[in-house]
Write a structure and sequence with these properties.
This protein folds into three domains: 215 residues, no CATH class; 91 residues, Translation factors (Elongation Factor Tu (Ef-tu), domain 3, Beta Barrel); 136 residues, Nucleotide-binding domain of ferredoxin-NADP reductase (FNR) module (Rossmann fold, 3-Layer(aba) Sandwich). Helix content is 53%, strand content 15%. The strands form three sheets. The protein has a five-stranded parallel beta sheet with strand order 9-8-7-10-11, with helices on both faces. A three-stranded antiparallel beta sheet has the order 1-2-5. Strands 4-3-6 form a three-stranded antiparallel beta sheet. The longest helix has 34 residues. InterPro entries: FAD-bd_8 (IPR013112), FAD-bd_FR_type (IPR017927), Fe3_Rdtase_TM_dom (IPR013130), FNR_nucleotide-bd (IPR039261), MRET (IPR050415), OxRdtase_FAD/NAD-bd (IPR001433), Riboflavin_synthase-like_b-brl (IPR017938).
Length: 466
Amino acid sequence: MPTTKKPIVLGAAKQRKLARLSDTLQVAAVFGILIPLLAMIADGAASNLNSSYLWINFVNRFSALSGTALLLLHLILVARVPWIEAIVGLDRLTGAHKQLGKPLLYILSIHVATAIWASADQNGIDLWQGLMLLVAHYQEMLIALVGFGLMIIVTVSSINAARRKLSYEAWYVIHLTSYIAVLLAIPHQFEFGSEFLAQPWLSTYFVALYIFVLVNVVWFRSLHPVIQSLRLGTKVTKVEPTTNNATSVYVSAKNAKPFNFKSGQFYMVRVMTLLDFWKPHPFSASSSSGEKYLRFTIGKRGDFTERMQSIKLGTRIVLEGPYGIFTEAKRTKQKVTLIAAGIGVAPIRSLAQQLASKPNDLTILYRANNARDATLAKELVDISSEKGHNLHVLTGERSSKVPWLPSSVTDASDLPDYALLTQLAPDILNSDVYVCGPTQWTNEFVATLKKLAIPKSQIHVEEFAW
């Protein structure tokens, strides 16, 4: 039975609604952290601080409550909770997770330091002896200290210099230990946490937070994808080379059940082989929603993606998702400009096929090294011809003047980058702009968009990076 597509809502009212939903989530997160801190102060913890020990103890308790609340928020940001992800987007959630990493470590470091200091001050011993006293007499403290050490390792691995030296697989394994670190911290919180012991409702509050985070992490990151994939019986049914450095992998479900997602979204793909079953990788769908297969068009970017080029037919696949708000849901303008570079063409192709549009509403710019590397270019040509999109496939060596353009374009003109862009996409000032490509290329292109003073609400970016 045919389905009727819902009308697309555009305009300022939609912008305000999207902003309100995002703001509501942010306010809820802030209040989740403030509630225990305000409760502590309301209970008189900040009064009569007339000795160094009382001050140290106050800072220790304050950092304990704020650190615990922030740690749980840190985890829920990457739990892939659908109703949160649908509002904020997994890329922004992951970005917030990264930004909170260092402040969280600083707060936990203050908590550890003041715990040792308080132990030394109370017993009239030096700091080293204070530390030894805690770990020798209280097993929960030793366990928590091990957890803190794991948190340091996880945070260091996220520093840009370290990330550049680590493979995705090594980085992923290190980050799995953050869950162990959280579990190791729990015993000392409920055994020695004076705020928990003095205020039962606060203890209940944190138990509820722990359960909420644990249930969401276990269900959405582990159980639900496995159960769903077992039910659907998803497996590789076709492997098709597309260009010199890219291959399309087709995944189908048993009984040829169609896949429903929003064009522009991606899946976390877990290949059930001995080498790869333990780690998922993100890939955008290059097919259209409602088809009886999912297609992932994958470029060679490492060992895993090379193995995907020759994956065997029938290999079982576990899918998490779909994720992402790089979709029509964020669209507020009638005109749309789609920008792709390299393998970033995958979600752009899907959007080009399914965005609601009239002829000349959509302009597509596709940057590739050469015609042989222009993955899915023929499909974009066919879609554009059918729907009346304006397509520009830009190939050639990188320009030294405007890095996101080929030199063949910039050498033929003295115009600045923003003027060249408006020539290629005349409606871009009044368009929603969707950009997907390698991180450096994307940053260079967005820098040009800023020169045109296009509002952030009209710019939607999906980066191919981890």
